[in-house]
Amino acid sequence: EGVAPQEYTLVKLRIHDDHIPEKLKPHVTSSTAGVYLAAATLRPETMYGQTNCWLHPDIRYVAFETRLHGILICTKRAARNMSYQEFTPTYGQFTILAEFLGSELFGLPLHGPLSHYETIYVLPMMTIKEDKGTGVVTSVPSDSPDDFAALTDLKNKANLREKYHIQDSMVLPYEPVPIIELSPYGRLAAPTICQQMKIQSQNDRDKLVEAKEQIYTKSFYEGILMVGKYANTKISDAKKLVRDDLIADGKACPYYE
Ligand code: A2H
């Protein structure tokens, strides 16, 4: 824990209404404002490039009712934090409607706000930490080396897909989307640096830390968003503009820890 709180943007990935998990169905009524996986991100301006959502197979997630954001799914730790940030009807309290292992949610179809892809799926990532953010990560393989490495693992390893009952159609058609120009890497910075550094999989931890360091700060200061309402805007400006629009549209909210 640092001294200053970390501010995340919590992006609401809506589970398609016809795929609400059985355990939650008794709690969903006509007045429920949707059921969402709550992904914590530092890069709201990259949401155009979402290709999937990551959960850890063995982490426990809870579903709880919020005042303004429907039913959210995240780690219990994050739900507790949210209860102190006015997400729930009673300060400091949250009512667990259902619990899931990440593996129980794999293959669910979602709508990711702003995503180039109409439907994205819940897939496994082994490097998700329980004690950071919400334990739910939205995947942007064009600009996150971790996401690119994990998606490449799933594409290359049929046995990994089989182990978690992931259909080929949930993974193979999904390509990184060119959304940010970052010289000298081009418009697919994460795939480019992963290739340059010969990163083989999501388990190449040291190399991935270095890849992240090389492009993260550089993207903030030198990257140009190429798509959407703020096309041709520097990332340092676009970040807040896209974030504020997502929040104004009810598709995201601030989350601190
Ligand atoms: B970022 P920090 Cl395009 N375990 O979002 C592992 N990683 C997690 C996580 C968890 N529990 N919770 C969040 N994250 C990821 C986008 C993105 C991110 C891009 C580029 C870089 C990047 C799309 N994924 O992060 O340690 C989330 O991925 C590079 C640091 O709390 C979140 O932002 O600072 C970031 O790590 C939060 O990391």
Would you write up a description of this structure?
The chain is 27% helix and 23% strand. The protein is of the alpha+beta class. It has helices at 76-83, 102-105, 145-156, 158-163, 189-196, 205-222, 235-248; strands at residues 7-15, 35-41, 52-55, 60-65, 71-74, 96-101, 109-111, 120-124, 137-139, 180-181, 224-225, 233-234, 252-256. Strands 1, 2, 3, 4, 5, 6, 7, 8, 9 and 13 form a ten-stranded mixed sheet that branches. The chain has a three-stranded antiparallel sheet with strand order 10-11-12. A hairpin with an 8-residue loop joins strand 7 (109-111) and strand 8. The chain is globular. The longest helix has 18 residues, at 205-222. It binds ligand A2H. Ligand A2H binds at residues 6, 40-43, 46, 128-129, 132-133, 135, 137-140, 143-144, 147, 212, 216.
In terms of topology, how is this protein built?
Elements: E1 7-15, E2 35-41, E3 52-55, E4 60-65, E5 71-74, H1 76-83, E6 96-101, H2 102-105, E7 109-111, E8 120-124, E9 137-139, H3 145-156, H4 158-163, E10 180-181, H5 189-196, H6 205-222, E11 224-225, E12 233-234, H7 235-248, E13 252-256
Parallel strand pairs: 2-5, 3-8
Antiparallel strand pairs: 1-2, 1-7, 1-13, 3-9, 4-5, 4-6, 7-8, 10-11, 11-12
Helix pairs in contact: 3-5, 5-6
The protein binds ligand A2H.
Ligand A2H binds at residues 6, 40-43, 46, 128-129, 132-133, 135, 137-140, 143-144, 147, 212, 216.
Protein name: leucine--tRNA ligase
Organism: Adineta ricciae
Family: Belongs to the class-I aminoacyl-tRNA synthetase family.
